[in-house]
Amino acid sequence: MASRHDGDTWDLASSVGATATMAAAARAMATRSDPARIDDRFAEPLVRAVGVDLLTRLASGEAAPGDLVEQVWIDVAKVRTRFYDGFFRESALPQVVILGAGLDSRAYRLPWPAGTLVYEVDRPEVLEFKTRTLAGLGAEPTAERRVVAADLREDWPAALSGAGFDPGQPAAWSAEGLLGYLPPEAQDRLLDTVTRLSAPGSRLATESRPSPRPGDDERTKAGLDRISGRWREQSFDTDMARLRYYGERNEAAPYLTARGWVVRGSTVRELLATHGLAPLADDDLRTGDVRYVSGVLPRMSCPA
Ligand SMILES: C[S@@+](CC[C@H](N)C(=O)[O-])C[C@H]1O[C@@H](n2cnc3c(N)ncnc32)[C@H](O)[C@@H]1O
After folding, report:
1. Of 116, 161, 276, 287, which sees the most CB atoms within 10 A?
2. Is the pTM of this model over 0.90?
3. Which residue's CA is minimally distant from atom 14 of ligand 1?
């Protein structure tokens, strides 16, 4: 499998698109094992429709996670989904933008206030597949859902505004499981663009990964190679280590703070403990240090 490069493309079974199917498979497993904490009823049928046999068997419960999926992936899916669901429930803003939406089904399963517009931005192949599959299941969006088929390395703001986004109104943005799949400079551009398009009162949720220490990237690649190897034995030919971008990059939380956002958040390690879930054992990928953060762009205060 070739490394990532400018202008590369994918569907939900290939390259970085398959990571959306993996994330949905983790949500399906989490939903089955802990329905009180997470309810993503669309995850399993979406994964099944993509048709990657191993992920379908895991998502549907036909295959036990065993050593195919580390328990921590399922537990992280629980705390991550709860974090972003909670963020959107609290935000209650008229516009919502889900960047790198993948197989996220929030536009179909959250109780949005009347009149909410939910924009989903991702590659055309991904969004067309999701729209078609959920329509085939008879699922109805619970808000006005607008798809924005665009590449986040390119001029996606034009596509967003073409779909009706109003930068004069506050919006709730999410970039979930996305930043590591963008080159470092594209991450900065994305956060700059979100800031530019955000009226005061806007909110944003994302992950803030600490800068790599010497040796971190090599350990992450080795960890991902181990997982890809196990999956290859099950006929799922993926090369997870090649899907991410490595090296120095700005940490999202301080980067956003420097641009006026008031940011707070918790690490994955803290959230697992808060929810009474098992702590991380070997953490080659430094998952425990990732912070789920939400920020608000303050409204101007009136002069006295
Ligand atoms: C790990 S998945 C996360 C999907 C979803 N946010 C979730 O948490 O389930 C990463 C998503 O980002 C999208 N993505 C990555 N790079 C992108 C780009 N340059 N333009 C548009 N979408 C991109 C992929 O298509 C994929 O759906």
Report:
1. 116
2. yes
3. 100
- Tokens 């909670």 belong to which residue? 86
**What separation in Å is there between the alpha carbon of 304 and the centre of ligand 1?**
45
In three-state form (DSSP H/G/I as H, E/B as E, the rest C), the secondary structure along 137-171 is CCCCCCCEEEEEECCCCCCHHHHHHHCCCCCCCCE
Ligand 1 neighbour 125 (Cβ under 6 A): no
Is 72 close to ligand 1, i.e. is its CB under 6 Å away? Answer: no
What region, left, alpha or beta, does residue 102 occupy, with left being phi > 0 and alpha being psi -120 to 50 degrees? left
pLDDT, one tens digit per residue, over 64-81 is: 887 678 788 899 999 999
The CB of 153 under 6 Å from ligand 1? The reply is yes
Contacts of 64 (CB under 8 A, 6+ apart): none
Tell me the CA–centroid distance for residue 114 and ligand 1, in Å.
27
Q: Please give the structure tokens belonging to residue 137.
A: 């299941």
Tokens 């970039």 sit on residue: 175
Question: CB within 8 A of 194, min separation 6: which ones?
Answer: 99, 173, 175, 204
Residues 16-31: what's their mean pLDDT?
93
pLDDT tens-digit readout, 1-19: 556 788 787 678 777 778 9
Which tokens is 50 given?
Answer: 């993509």
pLDDT digits (tens, 9 = 90+) for 91-126: 999 999 999 999 999 999 999 999 999 999 999 999
> Domains of the chain (ranges plus CATH)?
17-296 (3.40.50.150)
**For ligand 1, is residue 226 a contact (CB within 6 Å)?**
no
Q: How confident is the model at residue 25, as a pLDDT?
A: 96
Is the minimum distance from the CB of 207 to ligand 1 under 6 angstroms? no
Q: What is the mean pLDDT of the chain?
A: 92
Alpha-carbon distances of 100 from 97, 152, 237, 291, rounded to whole Å: 10, 8, 23, 18
pLDDT computed for residue 302 by the predictor = 55
Closest protein CA for atom 4 of ligand 1: 102
